[in-house]
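ARCHIVE CARD
SHELF: 3
SLOT: left
DATA:
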Amino acid sequence: MSTFYGLIISRDLYNPESEAGKNRMRFLINALKPYRHLFGSKALDIGCGAGTSTFALEELGLSVVGIDRDKLFIEKARKIAEKRRSRAKFFVADARTMSVRDVFDSVFMLGDVIIHFSLTEFIRMIQNIRRATRRKFVLVLEYSDFVESLLRKEEPIPIPTERRGKVYYSYNADEGCLKIIVITREIGPDKYEAEEVKMYIWSPWVLEYILLTSGFTLISRERYRNGVFIDIYKEVSGEIG
């Protein structure tokens, strides 16, 4: 995850102390506030990064636990929480395999977290988090329609200016993902050091099909000017179709 956010996407966007991070917090608060009554009191923030989304949820009055697979992000989130005198808790954990004692009313995956999950991994994650949630919990996802971006020949993710010309895409049809090669250093004529990351392709209709067949119903879907969707689903049964 460090590679993805360090090389391809600016970390400032997910840093709650940066101006970009503060703007993002305001966006999330304003977007989610009309639905606050659906979220209960305890929330799980999956892929919390350095805490931008977690602190936004806390501003809405939720008691939040943030988890991320990246240890560096969690360490930073804890330091910022201390400065803010926040009561949010942060743990290094994988939503697909985590084991927690808390019982959550709502689960959030904000900031295109879903692109790090294949279809199979996402279903496994849903099955796992059901053990840590109340019956008929609410699931909130913020994501981009990458199918539309590809059809429009747009960049599926915003590439920092300094990385342009150093990022190459290939499509893996078996896994349903883009493989992204990022050149990090030129070490000689036609010789480079590079990093590879994967970005799984999601779209509203794909997500909706998986969740409807997994026992959820769609309560709300909002599309924003930046092409981002925020979906709110509610569990109606605990069975995978």
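SLOT: right
DATA:
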Amino acid sequence: MQPVRRAIAAVAGLAVILVVALLGVAVWQWWTNRPIDYASRHGDRCLEPGEDDQYFRCWDLLVPSSIDVNDDVAVPLVVDLHGFTGDPGLQRELSGFAELADKDEFIVAWPYGIDDSWNGGGDEWSTNTRIPEVPGAGCCGVALNDGIDDVAFIRALIEDIRTLYPIDADAIFVTGLSNGCFMAQRVAAEASDLIAGMACIAGLTLTEVPENYEPVPILVVHGTADDIVSYESDFWHGAQENIAKWAQRNGCVGPTATVWDEGPHRMDQTSGCDNGADVALLTLSDVGHIAYGGRNLEASPTALAWKFLLSQVP
């Protein structure tokens, strides 16, 4: 009976280890996916709530170890905005800017939108989660419906980072995905005095561009199979109409040329623009909403966007 008892004890021990391991995984998943308390600090760095504000506005930050913060050599800054219901961790994983930052030595900030949303402009939703399929529909969620001033937040975030690190004022860029792309275009329009360029994926411009807008380089990446923000015009204007409006805002009079292609994918870039601020549309054929890669696509859209932005730096 002794061997049988030992076998039973071994099985029981393994069962206990398995249960503990599963509990550990469950606790870890709960911790990493728990709702964020925006009234408390979160992320790597935060701005204190203002007198009329209940939220800490926070962000995650990557400063490559190769950057000497005490050096006078200025480096670029990229502000990378997550999509609706996303978060900085997911955006960091999707976009690939962390890997580029380590390679090319620049700083990246991944801000937190309130309730995982950004006020990209447009008409309010009927609820915080359901977008109305009507012309003028805004994007997105709580940030839109509560009228949160996310442009002011991005401005303050950039100014805070500039007090800590040697940032090149001619190389401050904003990018993002989906709701983050709507927001990136709003930032480019309303903070053109601060932003040196914008490149984003699967979004449009939903706000009026102010009269004091100074043209900045614009690149939008869009998949033709996007079933969330359609490439063609639907209740929102489509990708081509959106980029044509940016070319008009930027005073572009030069030709539009295909500057890159790979199979059915192509980048069309319009030059001869005010401030030398070119406008480009990177069209990814048969690619959906999360267009950081795609079918039969070897090139990285993020790497192409980064190359475009750097090419526009004076």
